Amino acid sequence: MSDVLILHVADSALEPIYSEIIGALNERGIASDFFSADRPFEDQFAGKVVVIDIGGWGRAEHVAAGKAAGVQLWQVVGYGLDHLALDEVMASGIPLARIPGSSTAIALAEHAMYLLLAVVKQANLARPALMEQHFFDGDALELDGRTIAIVGLGASGRELARRASGFGMRVIGVDVVAVSPADQAAIGVERCESIDRLHEVLAEADVVSLHLPLNSATRHVLNAGAFQAMKAGAIVVNVARGQLIDEAALVDALKTGHLGGAGLDVFEVEPLPLNSPLLSMPNVVVTPHWAAATRATMERRAQITANNVRLALDGGPAEHLVRLADL
């Protein structure tokens, strides 16, 4: 029996992150067991020092079993905690750690840029036109000189700012935390506004890209009122969490033509229902929550996870611990 239990209870794919984690643990001489929903929880958690929670989907019953077993670290493989039985973990006294946002920052920023380019360059129309032999008659937009509002200037938001600036875009940041003028200049941000001035920024932006964590304060940060505040023809990009957007209001704004398009990797309900009107809109580009799913991201997450497991097994404090003040 090992000291480590790997928990995977989401509907998301187990591979390739599982193999990366096993490889990183093996490099450090650490054995592990894999949780099975078909066996008694208590037997599987007994004697475990660390729980590795892939994706952060642990439920209250898992946390209770971990607390009873004396687990010393609950390691979420991911940054978001909105799927986790967070209140139960924090109340249990089990130290909670997650993967820092820097591990996925490049992947998310690149994917946001891909979605934006796919919308403005009419990717959904290109292949049908090619198959129908309709050449030379595209009607795409250019990004140079356009204004992008990046809502959330954390790790991925900053990486997107660098890339958008490289495309000649004017970049405005919005965040709950003040960003120094030096940091703004370093990433190509013209200015940064507080979240309470969001609607003012939306009125300036040709593109709005979301990079916020999901919590009670950010849920539906883009709602009907926010869409109304946007410029006609604006484009929305979301690679963060689906529930940051009121999806019904988004569909309405797209149907009326007020919004020019959307690039979405995340949705209010996942998997996205096949009867969603978003799937039939030519100016909406969608991907199946793949933004962070790069090989490099998997490797970074696995190495950070295994390093924290080693620290916990050696009796030391883990890194990237979650504090109540962070939530």
Detail the topology: elements first, then pairings:
Elements: E1 4-7, H1 17-27, E2 33-34, H2 41-45, E3 50-54, H3 60-69, E4 73-77, H4 86-92, E5 96-97, H5 105-120, H6 123-131, E6 147-151, H7 155-166, E7 170-175, H8 181-187, E8 191-194, H9 198-202, E9 207-210, H10 224-229, E10 234-238, H11 247-255, E11 259-264, E12 284-286, H12 295-313
Parallel strand pairs: 1-2, 1-3, 3-4, 4-5, 6-7, 6-9, 7-8, 9-10, 10-11, 11-12
Helix pairs in contact: 1-12, 5-7
Keywords: Oxidoreductase
Domain D-isomer specific 2-hydroxyacid dehydrogenase catalytic: 67-322
GO cellular component, one term: cytosol
Q: Describe it for me?
A:
The structure is a single chain. By secondary structure, this protein is of the alpha/beta class. It has 2 domains: 4-100 and 294-326, NAD(P)-binding Rossmann-like Domain (Rossmann fold, 3-Layer(aba) Sandwich); 105-286, NAD(P)-binding Rossmann-like Domain (Rossmann fold). 35% of the residues lie in helices and 16% in strands. The protein has 12 helices and 12 strands. The protein has helices at residues 17-27, 41-45, 60-69, 86-92, 105-120, 123-131, 155-166, 181-187, 198-202, 224-229, 247-255, 295-313, and strands at 4-7, 33-34, 50-54, 73-77, 96-97, 147-151, 170-175, 191-194, 207-210, 234-238, 259-264, 284-286. It has a 7-stranded parallel sheet with strand order 8-7-6-9-10-11-12, with helices on both faces. The protein has a 5-stranded parallel sheet with strand order 2-1-3-4-5, with helices on one face. It is elongated. The protein starts with a strand and ends in a 14-residue tail after the last helix.
